[in-house]
Amino acid sequence: MTESPFNTAVFRMRRNSLVGDSLKAYDVPERVRTYDIDMDVMHPLRHKMIEIILDILPLRDYFSSIFFISIGMLLNIGNFLDHFSLILGITLILVVMKVVSGFLASVAVGNSARISFIVGVRLAQVGEFSLILAGLALTQGLLSSDHHQTFLTVAVLTMLIAPLLIQVSSPAS
Question: What is the mean pLDDT of residues 61-69?
């Protein structure tokens, strides 16, 4: 079977459409997954970049799962239930403080109030590095086991509400 330029272009367009759809499922930005109509002028490195992204993105999901499973294994649900109102109060105060501090920091560097609000809300979760610091504080005796569990529970709660906060941050601004 001979390969005509038309068949090659149709095959490439179908393949690129499938790759684009696959990348869309992994939330890859439009500018990375879109292809030019003229397949002959497509940059050869773009193919390699897309290949690499398709190879790496499933690993992101695996590592995220392992991270949250390991954090969940550290969590003591009994502590959460025993100190329910305290933990919710600390979580609320922490989120509000982080939103305000992120907002003020963003305003201080010259961003608009709208952008600063989005920055503050999107940075409201407790970061993963703080979990490492809390673990070190526990091993050094600076935090008791109960305080560490409270911190861990607050961190997990902020991580759970982070996607919701991110989703509502732009429309709310």
Answer: 76
